[in-house]
Amino acid sequence: MKKLTLLFVSLVFIFTGCNDTKKQENTQVKKEQVKTYTLTMATTWGPTLTPLIDSAQNMAKYAETISNGRLKIRVDASNKHKSPLGILDMVKGGQYDMGHSASYYWKGKDLATLPFTSMPFGMTAPEQYAWFYQAGGLELMQKVYAKHGVLSFPGGSTGVQMGGWFKKEINSLEDLQGLKMRIPGFAGEIMAKLGVQVTNIAPGELYTALDRNNIDALEWVGPSMDIGMGFHKIAPFYYTGWHEPASEMQFLINKKSFEKLPKDLQEILVLTIRTAAYDMYIQNYDLNAKAWKKMKEEYPNIQIKTFPKEIMVSMKEANKELRAELGAKSPELKEILDHQDAYMKEVREWTEISDYLYIQNNL
What we know:
- By secondary structure, this protein is α/β, with parallel strands linked by helices.
- It has two domains: about 35-155 and about 245-285, D-Maltodextrin-Binding Protein, domain 2; about 160-245 and about 300-330, Periplasmic binding protein-like II (D-Maltodextrin-Binding Protein, domain 2), CATH 3.40.190.
- Helices cover about 50% and strands about 15% of the residues.
- Strand 6 (about 180), helix 7 and strand 7 form a beta-alpha-beta unit.
- Pfam families: DctP.
- GO terms for molecular function: metal ion binding.
- Keywords: Metal-binding, Signal.
């Protein structure tokens, strides 16, 4: 009997051991069968330009974590690829699978890309996000970028950008005549119509240009990114924004690269892009508040100013004229601008009732 028992135990041990070995072998086979995908992303930003570079890096981190390591994204800052304003071309041509930049940089290639960043006197960031994700804005963006062979998604908002640092107070339209100012893009064209001598200078040379009176004023972003540039040390008048009320960055994806991914990884990519974009918005909001607190404590002579009414009226008139000119050149651009205007008219009433009056009544 004892011999039979020992034999039975031995058989059970052998059988169990075999099963365990098979399980281990099957697990190993499954692990070997799991395919990983690696994408490359080029950004317009340098490696330390927070929070813009953070949006790209965070998205890559989220995607790898949620996919359990199946989707990896290598992020190259501008110092690596040396072409900060070549992102669309590199993604379109397949040199990179993805890019992180801003849509209005491609105005010279395609006018219709302009409105997907921000437009003067346009929507606030919450309004613009609602337009993208609830009112057809995203579909319009995909339609524009489809002809370039890429997908485009919102990539993080700076919110309202400030109107710029001025060495002298602006009290009238006459004060703008011949004023030398660094303000690029569509806003620069508006200011030029008002008599400003618009120039564009490399970021690394801006402080010196302002300090040496080569320029009288400049527009950058907002406290979070302005503080590191030091403009507040030499230009005491800080004007409120009008030209970029919701500057949205963008993620670009080469369409062929996207379609090579399994469906679940495509979904993970899109969802992590959306998460990283909103994360950048709230991160920058917090950084702006902290940077402004530090600025006013260390440089109490800084004065927050708003452009006089006559200047604001003239800016709006110039904006209207320029939009009409560009719309005549590009029916596609006009379609997008009209769509934005219609939605802003609808959503702005609620913004005024809710946020605006809440703040006004609690000052």
